[in-house]
Backbone:
C-alpha cells in the first residue's frame, strides 16, 4: 500500500487537491483493495479554507501524519505565502526527500522551485503563473506545451484539472494501465468510453 499525503493550506485551489484525492481513492473503489491510503496534512492540523471558501478539516498535522510515499502539493493563491514560511519549507523539503515521489499541481510548483527540486529538470504549472517558476527556479526548464511533466521522482502538472491527468499517469506507472483505465471509466473522465 502507498500512503498518499496531500498538503493543505489556506487559499488552496480546491480541485488541485480534490482531483488527485478522488483519483487515488477511486483505485480502492474499483478494486475493493486499499492500494492507496489517501490523507490530508496541514501545518498544525487546523481547519483551512480553500480559494473559494470551502472549509476543510485536514486529517493530520506536520507532527503526527503517517509516512508519506507520494506527496501531493496543490496550488492556489496560498502558495505565495507558504513559500515564505520556514516551517512549511522545512517540512516540504524533508517530505520530498523521504517520499518515493512528489507531485505538484498548478502553482504548487512554486514550493518545489523554491526548494531547488525543479533545478535542471523540465516542469510545468498553471498558464497564468508560468513566469513564477522561471523567477523562483531559474535553472528549471518550464514547459508551456505539456499537461504534466514527470522526471524521476518529481512530477508537475499544469493548472487545476491537470492534476487529475498526472494522478492517473502515476497510477498507471505504479499499478499498470488496466487499473488507471478502470479509474477513468469509474470517474467518466476524458475519453473513458474507449476503456469500457
Residues:
Amino acid at each position: 500500500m502507498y500512503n498518499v499525503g496531500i498538503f493543505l493550506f489556506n487559499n488552496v485551489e480546491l480541485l488541485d487537491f480534490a482531483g488527485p484525492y478522488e483519483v487515488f481513492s477511486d483505485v480502492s473503489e474499483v478494486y475493493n483493495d486499499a492500494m492507496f491510503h489517501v490523507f490530508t496534512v496541514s501545518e498544525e492540523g487546523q481547519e483551512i479554507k480553500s480559494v473559494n471558501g470551502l472549509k476543510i478539516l485536514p486529517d493530520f498535522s506536520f507532527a503526527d501524519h503517517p509516512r508519506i510515499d507520494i506527496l501531493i502539493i496543490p496550488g492556489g493563491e496560498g502558495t505565495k505565502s507558504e513559500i515564505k514560511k520556514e516551517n512549511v519549507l522545512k517540512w516540504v523539503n524533508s517530505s520530498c526527500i523521504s517520499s518515493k515521489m512528489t507531485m505538484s499541481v498548478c502553482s504548487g510548483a512554486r514550493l518545489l522551485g523554491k526548494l531547488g527540486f525543479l533545478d535542471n529538470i523540465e516542469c510545468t504549472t498553471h498558464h497564468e503563473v508560468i513566469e513564477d517558476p522561471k523567477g523562483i527556479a531559474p535553472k528549471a526548464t518550464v514547459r508551456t506545451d505539456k499537461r504534466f511533466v514527470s522526471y524521476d521522482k518529481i512530477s508537475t502538472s499544469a493548472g487545476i484539472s491537470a492534476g487529475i491527468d498526472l494522478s492517473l499517469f502515476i497510477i498507471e506507472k505504479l499499478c499498470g494501465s488496466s487499473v488507471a483505465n478502470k479509474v477513468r471509466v469509474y470517474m467518466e473522465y476524458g475519453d473513458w468510453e474507449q476503456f469500457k
Summary: The first strand starts at residue 2 and ends at 7. The chain has a mean pLDDT of 95. The helical segments are 14-31, 79-82, 86-98, 109-114, 131-136, 162-175, 177-187. The CA atoms of residues 3 and 67 lie 7 Å apart.
